[in-house]
Amino acid sequence: MSDELPDELSDEKIDKIRSKLVEKGAQANCPMCNNSSFQIQHLLTKLSVQSKLSEGSFRNVSLPAAVTICENCGFITLHSLTMLGLAEEFE
User: Which residues have a Cβ under 8 Å from the Cβ of 73 and sit 6 or more positions away?
Assistant: First the structure.
């Protein structure tokens, strides 16, 4: 297993995510502490999805997402790259 970290997103890609979030009106304050400052992380995540919770039902299906973190309390939010229209661009 490699100890190397994955490549971080460029500032250009972070700006694309930020622009899409603003375009979609995703500018609400943090639901935990009401802070208005969030950071967009320079790494993406994928959520594994399945139709049943039983063992062995996992398939290689996932939802790619951008991660934002509240600068005050650390609350994490995920934003679907598919719904933002950026999934193919970020593959």
Answer: 30, 32, 33, 35
